[in-house]
Design a protein that fits this description.
Elements: H1 2-19, H2 22-25, H3 40-47, H4 51-58, H5 67-76, H6 81-91, H7 109-116, E1 123-126, E2 132-135, H8 137-142, H9 156-162, H10 164-169, H11 173-190, H12 195-207, H13 209-215, E3 225-232, E4 236-246, E5 254-260, H14 263-285
Antiparallel strand pairs: 1-2, 1-5, 3-4, 4-5
InterPro entries: Cro/C1-type_HTH, Lambda_DNA-bd_dom_sf, MLTR_LBD
Pfam family, one: HTH_31
Protein name: Helix-turn-helix protein
């Protein structure tokens, strides 16, 4: 485990150093440069550490960096918040839950109740291993019916990489999948002894070439906000804006809230909510028909942007 963390740290620092030009760092570039970005001695100078010490850090050799030194290196390499956390996690001794981790606490009743009262806003809760812990009906209608899956198969990242429906659903699938790999990289750096994360990584690296490629290139991502575009089999095209809120009591659960990005997407979400409610009602009444499982070639109306 320690050797792997050192490899990740070395790869991450080397890549970030190559991305910072001398001009950006305020250094006059002179002569022929054999490497892109900053040289090691330039990073050491700008961060106020010895060249030998920085070389040891970048090579993953034993050092004991202080918060101040890591902060100076983060500023020199122009790291964002997620990248800075990743650096800190890898450069310091491993902590966090290990193989005997009993799991995460249940989602608080107040959070569960809140997301079910949202009007026309899909919402769900993820754990640090991308576990889908809770959500509302509109989230299941937009993404996938996670409550219908086995408890050990309710994982957003596994679904995105292994279910062909996910690739069809996300218009920008590759971008979203790569970013979520970066989120897992950040979580793994903070929980290096978590055997469930390690097992998920092994599984996806075995089954997905794309995951294996992105995992090998450290690009840690935080969970903050963004935009996603969908091509939904029932209501057609829609765009949402999302916000993420990490619950502060243990920093292990994150609430995601989706909001329509435009009037057409708002109408599509309302149609999707109506479809989901009808599906649940008919299922409970025992009158569910194949029309409730529409596909893109269905002749049923599919919303303002998806009608064909």
């Amino acid at each position: 485990m320690a050797a792997r963390r050192n490899e990740l740290l070395s790869a991450f620092l080397t890549r970030k150093r190559a991305e910072v030009s001398p001009e950006t760092a305020g250094i006059e570039a002179t002569g022929t440069r054999r490497v892109p970005g900053l040289r090691r001695e330039e990073v050491a100078f700008l961060a106020g550490v010895s060249l030998d010490w920085y070389v040891r850090l970048e090579q993953g050799r034993p050092v004991t960096p202080s918060e101040q030194v890591l902060g100076a290196i983060a500023r020199t390499l122009r790291l964002d918040e997620a990248e800075r956390d990743y650096l800190y996690n890898l450069a310091r001794p491993a902590t966090g839950p290990g193989a005997g981790d009993p799991g995460l606490p249940a989602v608080r009743p107040g959070i569960r109740k809140m997301i079910r009262t949202f009007d026309n806003q899909p919402a769900f809760v993820l754990g640090p291993r991308m576990e889908v812990l809770d959500g509302n009906d509109l989230a299941w209608a937009l993404l996938a019916d996670f409550p219908a899956r086995a408890p050990d198969d309710r994982n957003l990242l596994r679904w995105i990489f292994t279910d062909p429906a996910a690739r069809d659903l996300y218009i920008d699938w590759a971008q979203i999948a790569a970013e979520l790999v970066g989120v897992l990289q950040l979580e793994a750096s903070a929980r290096p002894r978590d055997q469930q994360i390690a097992a998920l990584v092994r599984e996806l690296a075995t089954t997905s070439t794309e995951f294996r490629t992105w995992w090998a290139r450290p690009a840690p991502q935080g969970r903050t906000s963004g935009t996603k575009r969908f091509q939904h089999p029932v209501v057609g095209a829609l765009t949402i804006e999302w916000e993420a809120f990490t619950l502060q009591e243990d920093q292990t659960q994150t609430v995601f809230v989706y909001t329509a990005a435009d009037p057409d997407s708002d109408a599509a979400l309302r149609m999707l909510a109506s479809w989901r409610a009808t599906t649940i009602r008919d299922s409970e009444a025992g009158t569910l028909t194949p029309q409730h499982h529409l596909r893109p070639n269905s002749t049923e109306p599919r919303g303002p942007q998806g009608a064909e």
